[in-house]
Amino acid sequence: MVTVDTAVAPTSRTPGREAGGSSPGRVLAWACLIAIIAITLFPFYWMLRTALSNGTTLATAGTSWLPVDFTWGAFKRVLGLATVEEAQAEGGSGAAVDFWLYLRNSVLVAALITAGQVFFGALAAYAFARMRWPGRDVVFFVLLTALMVPPIFTQLPNFLLMRDLGILNTYAALVLPFFFMTPFAVFFLRQFFLGISPEIEEAARLDGAGHVRTFFRIIVPMSWGPITTLALLQYVQAWNEYFWPLLVGSERGVRTLTVALGVFRSQTPQGNPDWPGLMAATLIAAIPVLLLFIAFGRKIVDSIGFSGIK
Amino acid sequence: MTTTAVPAAGAPASGAHAVAPHARGSRETWVALGFIVPTVFGFVVFYFWPSLRGFGLSFTDYKFFSDTSFVGLANYQRLLTDETFWNAMAVTVWYVVLNIGFQTVLAVLLAVLLHRLTRSVVTRGLVLMPYLVANVVVALLWFWMLDAQIGIVNQVLSWFGTGPVSFFGDEAWAIPTIAFVNTWRHLGYTALLIFAGLVMIPKMLYEAGKVDGASEWQMFWRITMPLLRPVLAMVLVITVVGSFQVFDTVAVTTGGGPADATRVIQYYIFDLAFQRLDYGYASAVSVVLLVILSVIAFVQLRLMRANESDLS
Asked: Which domains does chain A have, with CATH numbers?
């Protein structure tokens, strides 16, 4: 934090020349970059280190780099595998937690949302990009306005809708508002479809294929890259949702990981929170996304520029 | 779930034989409509109708369980004299200023560093990591690291001789702390957005600059910044609008405290609607938020003359 602050002071160190030698400017630039990366990554390590520590002795060895009294206890507590005595011996509260259930809920809800958004979004994007029909551009513009509305404005009435339908605290309520449409998906795929050469479709038309067959047999396979990228982005976003699941899904059976974390945090004894348990819980919430990232990192990184600028 | 009811499956069978152009056109319209039905359905049911309902509710005194009556502009009048509301606005604005100021400067710096020093995907991926993890996770992680007694940050501070700081518990520190936490999370993402803009600037311009004897600093301000303007404008609109809606971090760390110091506007709306069950009033406040955000987006885009790009 201290190094980064001083780095912002104006000197001649701003962009180091690509072809330049190791001028002091370049060295300073590298120092800045390394400092930023260190600050970015250190907390993740610290999360792991704390999760593997013993809660009762944690306070005494605050700055040790390695886990304090290495133990899997925190993970056992959080996954519901520890007995009450074991839990309390290491500083936990002994209250029941069941993160397997919440993990399952998060996986399910995010998967459903992603499937709907990508499938329906692709259909709509194709209609906007490649088909001609009256009012097409007007409707697209109207859909875009949905991007502008702050989520909370629609979430309050949507909560009422879920309640009126009697589906509060069900998977349906968690999934429905997001399932059919997200402006981002339509926007993202439309940009891509616009770039596909029309000759391919014309060739298909000549062979007698209609729009439906062209779409499913030709366009979709061609667009597999952007479609999977979109699916990844949307899955991550759905996984990380907190506000909406908090509103409509706080009951234990359908609780997602993010909501469960909030509950776990508010349950920990105020005087001495179960830090290792809390860190173990956050790790469990973070790991699936991080795994996806390791597997598909390149796609995700590259898509940031594309989606942002267009 | 509803995927089996996809309209495309029921659309007219493919196989457009030689049909007259105008008939083909209207058939295309039908197929297109079939393709967009789910999206339009989603828009109408979960965006449009709720928006109308939200506006409508803001003119009532709906409280979930009691009788509702139309109260006209009473909610809005109440807003004008509601101290907690104005406090929430002040707190949120202060948060946005800190968060966006800090984050944008650092993001431009990081983007330039990434652009000049190393463009490896691995590095870009590493800086993006915090963004992938949920807000709630990030908040709890920093809640631990910044703990007033045994958090690592305070331990390190004690090596420098300064006393422990109650980052989340001290009224003056709470908002800056939350601003920092969110900056940490969003820095990589914002930097990558700006990076994409940097990549579009033709190298030729920098080479010409070097030939003319311009220094790095001069080239940054005379070439890079002006050409980044449309990208920066867009990034700023996105980040400012997003920043105004901060909620997750506040909810799991301070819960609006200490003593309203972090009761940001979205938290206040949540509080009103679900803890005090004052839904009509909460709707009015959310309408106001919508208006404010629209104005901000509009003003920002105008100020930065985002439609013009010096590249074209």
From this structure: 2-78 (no CATH), 99-267 (1.10.3720.10)
